[in-house]
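Example for tutorial group B:
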């Protein structure tokens, strides 16, 4: 696994956790006004290809994908439909473990201010 692909996994997982917490209404905070990370003008693709060969950390659980429906037209309007199911361990690639992962009283990922996870050159 390359450093670039490891970084891609980390930021993908970070993004998913950052989005998931507000969706579930947990640990909502007012946005920081002094954030060093702001004013993005274009989206950044943080996706990463995961397959059966992807390295996972010390577990027998591997990535698995099952094709449920390869393609099907659903009546009455004959809309195209395809579905897959996949599973993978949480320790895949570079990722962020919350303190809770190692301590039952530790904080969750949503409790970590994003400002602590970024370094902007010349700002700190």
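The residue assignment follows.
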């Amino acid at each position: 696994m390359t450093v670039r692909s490891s970084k891609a996994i980390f930021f993908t997982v970070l993004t998913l956790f950052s989005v998931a917490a507000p969706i579930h209404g947990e640990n909502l905070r007012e946005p920081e006004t002094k954030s060093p990370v702001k004013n993005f003008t274009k989206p950044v693709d943080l996706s990463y290809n995961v397959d059966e060969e992807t390295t996972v950390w010390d577990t027998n659980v591997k990535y698995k994908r099952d094709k449920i429906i390869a393609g099907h037209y659903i009546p009455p309007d004959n809309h195209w439909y395809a579905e897959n199911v996949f599973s993978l361990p949480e320790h895949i690639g570079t990722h962020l473990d919350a303190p809770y992962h190692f301590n039952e009283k530790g904080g969750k990922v949503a409790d970590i201010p994003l400002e602590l996870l970024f370094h902007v050159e010349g700002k700190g």
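Confidence is low (pLDDT under 50) at residues 19-28. Compare this with the pattern of hydrophobic and polar residues in the output above.
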